[in-house]
């Protein structure tokens, strides 16, 4: 990616990116979600593999956040203000494992080995 594009997308340098990040943070806090909760394991099999490698309590916490968000959305309600302040929408739990899975897949492809899983999107 070019340095101009990187500086344009960096919230520390671009006011537009910072404004987008603030808006996204507000929407995620309303439902108690984290940014990594938005990744869909049915869409990308690397994400599915990364979720399988994470500890069970982290995956359970993710599922609980998704269920709570779905319930609040169906009821047309938000979390209370004090609970919204406690949320950390950009604290990542999936990115490190996802990077490791992608690195392993790229290494297997470079060595000419068969993939661990077939890429089929439902």
TrEMBL record:
The keyword Zinc does not apply. Keywords: Electron transport, Membrane, Mitochondrion, Mitochondrion inner membrane, Respiratory chain, Transport. It comes from Durio zibethinus (Durian). Component of the ubiquinol-cytochrome c oxidoreductase (cytochrome b-c1 complex, complex III, CIII), a multisubunit enzyme composed of 10 subunits. The complex is composed of 3 respiratory subunits cytochrome b (MT-CYB), cytochrome c1 (CYC1-1 or CYC1-2) and Rieske protein (UCR1-1 or UCR1-2), 2 core protein subunits MPPalpha1 (or MPPalpha2) and MPPB, and 5 low-molecular weight protein subunits QCR7-1 (or QCR7-2), UCRQ-1 (or UCRQ-2), QCR9, UCRY and probably QCR6-1 (or QCR6-2). Coiled coil: none annotated. This is Cytochrome b-c1 complex subunit 7. SUPFAM superfamilies: 14 kDa protein of cytochrome bc1 complex (Ubiquinol-cytochrome c reductase). It is found in: Mitochondrion inner membrane. It is a peripheral membrane protein. Belongs to the UQCRB/QCR7 family. One of its GO terms (cellular component) is mitochondrial inner membrane. It holds the Pfam family UCR_14kD.
């Amino acid at each position: 990616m070019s340095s101009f594009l990187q500086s344009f997308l960096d919230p520390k340098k671009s006011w537009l990116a910072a404004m987008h990040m603030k808006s996204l943070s507000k929407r995620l806090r309303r439902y108690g979600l984290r940014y990594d909760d938005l990744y869909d394991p049915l869409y990308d099999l690397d994400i599915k593999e990364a979720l399988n490698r994470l500890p069970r309590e982290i995956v359970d916490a993710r599922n609980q956040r998704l269920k709570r968000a779905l319930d609040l959305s169906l009821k047309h309600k938000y979390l209370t203000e004090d609970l919204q302040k406690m949320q950390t929408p950009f604290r990542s739990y999936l990115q490190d494992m996802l990077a490791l899975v992608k690195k392993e897949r790229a290494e297997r492809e470079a060595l000419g080995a068969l993939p661990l899983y077939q890429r089929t999107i439902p």
